[in-house]
Write a sequence for this structure.
């Protein structure tokens, strides 16, 4: 029986990747349990575009963003090149970002360069911008794959909502908080705010490139077309502070008209789903040991991994690796809980 017990709260892309990373790093030493209210396909992560590209991040955290982002890019690229690439919908995708200013944080992508005159003509208003090749993953396929991995490594799963991390503290050496926007209520973290995103999912297998149209004067309404392995995601909105998870008809028209203006062939695409999710936006993404819950009082050490905003998939593997290192550090002075 492994001597230490770790609980990961949350089963979105952050929680599942963190749980698997802890198992990989500390295999024989820990039993890992996931506690979450919602599992795939019901998490925010399931609805994301699965596109690698830091979005709505704080330039003050540039070093972390680059480190976590680069680690995640390499990880998805390796998945794409592995025999599991098809199962998780990992792919390389090239495309166009129309914008007046340079796209930040994409140095890691392949072949980043300005659009040629011919390429600007792809846009109906002849906009300039950049082209590059990045990676994508089909999150709706990736989360079940991670869950299978977690359970085959001996991981335990519990489905329930908690109202305080203290509920778990007596039973675990370390509790890792990966609750995304749930941390607003769970921790009372009002540094966290929702950034509402509405999208369509359509069947349009002829779309092979991504297209992102960034209106610098109106960042709430960015038009994007992301060709995933099974469906194309059309977006979207970025409404800061909006908790509404219902599909809004005004947003629907804005997204549909914007995408069809960019690529008129989408008018004939079959609509599969309309969806709204809340990005967990924080001033700074929080991956750290809680300064007030370091285990000195006999309670569990709390490690946080949340607040990734519009970049949860883009940063998930790097953040999960960092959280696993923090768990390893926290266990150095821990007393085994193997008999509980
Ligand atoms: C429209 C849209 C498109 C996006 N596209 C992209 C993209 O292309 N690329 C990208 O990098 N990012 C994208 N994002 C952002 C990305 O989806 C998020 O950053 C990411 O999903 C956050 O993952 P998470 O695991 O932290 O949170 P979540 O996926 O929300 O998971 C949180 C988990 O915690 C659980 N939980 C919460 N509170 C409690 C509680 N009190 N008790 C028990 N369990 C609890 C939940 O049930 C859930 O299991 C997009 C977001 C939206 C809305």
């Amino acid at each position: 029986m492994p001597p230490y017990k770790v609980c990961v709260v949350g089963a979105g892309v952050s929680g599942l990747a963190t749980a698997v990373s802890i198992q990989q790093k500390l295999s024989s030493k820990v039993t890992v349990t996931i506690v979450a209210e919602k599992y795939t396909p019901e998490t925010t992560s399931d609805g994301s575009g699965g596109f690698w590209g830091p979005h709505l991040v704080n330039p003050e955290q540039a070093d972390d963003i680059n480190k976590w982002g680069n680690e995640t890019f390499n990880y998805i690229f390796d998945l794409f090149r592995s025999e599991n690439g098809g199962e998780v919908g990992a792919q390389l995708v090239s495309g166009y970002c129309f914008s007046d200013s340079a796209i930040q944080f994409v140095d890691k992508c392949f072949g980043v360069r300005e659009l040629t005159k011919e390429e600007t003509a792809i846009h109906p208003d002849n906009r300039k911008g950049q082209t590059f090749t990045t990676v994508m993953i089909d999150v709706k396929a990736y989360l079940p794959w991670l869950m299978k991995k977690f359970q085959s490594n001996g991981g335990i799963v519990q489905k329930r909502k908690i109202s305080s991390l203290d509920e778990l503290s007596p039973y675990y050496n370390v509790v890792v908080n990966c609750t995304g926007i749930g941390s607003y209520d769970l921790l009372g973290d009002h540094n966290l705010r929702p950034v509402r995103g509405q999208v369509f999912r359509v069947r349009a297998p002829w779309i092979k490139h991504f297209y992102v149209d960034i209106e610098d004067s109106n960042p709430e309404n960015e038009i994007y077309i992301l060709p995933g392995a099974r469906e194309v995601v059309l977006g979207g909105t970025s409404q800061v502070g909006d908790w509404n998870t219902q599909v809004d008809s005004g947003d629907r028209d804005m997204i549909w008209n914007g995408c069809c203006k960019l690529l008129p062939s989408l008018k004939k695409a079959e609509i599969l789903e309309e969806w709204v999710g809340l990005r967990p936006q924080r001033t700074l993404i929080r991956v750290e040991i809680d300064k007030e819950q370091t285990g000195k009082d006999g309670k569990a050490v709390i490690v946080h991994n949340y607040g990734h905003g519009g970049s949860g998939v883009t940063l998930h593997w790097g953040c999960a690796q960092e959280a696993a290192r923090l768990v390893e550090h926290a266990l150095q002075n821990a007393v085994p809980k193997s008999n509980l």
